[in-house]
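Cross-check.
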Amino acid sequence: MPARMELYQRSGNDPEAEIAMFVLHLGSATFLLTEPVISAMTTGAATHVVTSQVKYLLGMKMPYISGPLGFFYIYAYVFENIKSVQLEALLLSLLSIVVLVLVKELNEQFKRKIKVVLPVDLVLIIAASFACYCANMEYTYGLDVVGHIPDGIPSPRAPPMNILSEVVTEAFGVALVGYVASLALAQGSAKKFKYSVDDNQEFLAHGLSNVIPSFFFCIPSAAAMGRTAGLYSTGSKTQVACLISCILVLIVIYAIGPLLYWLPMCVLASIIVVGLKGMLIQFRDLKKYWNVDKIDWSIWVSTYIFTICFAANVGLLFGVVCTIAVVIVRFQRAKTLSLKNMKELENKVKTEVEGENLQLVKIISINNPLVFLNAKKFHADLMNAIQKDNANNQTPDDINKCEQNVLLNSTSNGTCNGETSQPYPNEKCSVILDCTGLTFFDYTGVSTLVQAYMDCKGQNVDFLLANCTASLKKAVQYCGHLESDKHIFFESVSAAVGAIHLNKNLSKFSDHSEV
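Predicted model, tokenized:
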């Protein structure tokens, strides 16, 4: 084991830093970690892990290479010593990868039809170890094997603090990268299962999960995409599933661990590489970013390049700095919608509907760019305004007393003050989002806009977009797969109001026809 890795194993991944970040409430700063930056950084980190397994996949003897541009030095060494590739290890690696990918794809295709998913990783480990033992591959073909694995768990000891100064800088980077990878999976799960994530609490959880293992010289831990996907497929909902997994791992450590002496390293490397498939296929996001926002595409590519050229923490820092710089430049050039224009718009709408009251219609104007900086606040303000109206169950007379236009910006929330009255169940609430002031957007902003549309749809609220630019229409349709929902876009607010009244009249006509 290289000296640097031994230091990491002894010192953990600086969990004290994560706990300190929790105490300082630095979790609120994670909004700077945009989806393109996280995706590029995790993809680059996965690329580094795959690169570290190349020597085992090819059966080559290779010196420990690290530092800036180490990624390229490794592949340069491989091509310079291509004749030293061990054919047996290469063939066994290819066979293992093919089997793993094929079985995992079949499990994914038929997971709803079969009750028990085949644990192909465990089966491959047992089969490869047994074959290597019977054929004596370690000596016959010169294959590297895992070797002796200590029984059980080592006795707890305090981490050696005398080496802290040697690893504190890189350990801090490992802690940050592990946290970001875990947070990305947590946010993905939250979006899928409709719950919220406290970014600051994740710092505490991630730090504590590495404090106790540091006394047993454990490798730094973080969330795994493969294990998370496995929990999805089995329908797990609580931490009991993780407890069962831990018990099974403990059984393997005590009972099966010593039997893995004959496991070929090339097979183990193949399992690691295939396990990173979920992160590596994030390259497909490039097409999505290109169609939505080419600047986000550029940030993704540059962050990935910096990650593989230097390190994951360097790439992450570069991505955050680039994102902030882009937003600053965009905000300096942004145009906003003034309050005077909003009043004129309100009068124009009321005139064009020929004096008819805007019943249960809320007109909301975005007068700021919709990007990752204000996306969460926009979504929260919009949902609060809608839920407040639904909770009040206002009558049409009460709604006439409300201010129909709501300005949503970084300093004020849209509100509607009126007296509550009896419910008006036959009317359907509608929201018209005036996008005149939406001068630019990014992928996170468009995702939030699509999420708001889906949330309104789930609450039986019509969600209409008015005065959208062609680029915004294309981005919303592409990001949210709304090609079939083109009726949500209108050229003006008055056109949207007219469509609402037309639908209402058609609905009333249909009700009378049924009677």
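The CA atoms of residues 58 and 89 lie 6 Å apart. Confidence is low (pLDDT under 50) at residues 1-12, 336-344, 351-356, 393-425. Passed to J.P. for a second look.
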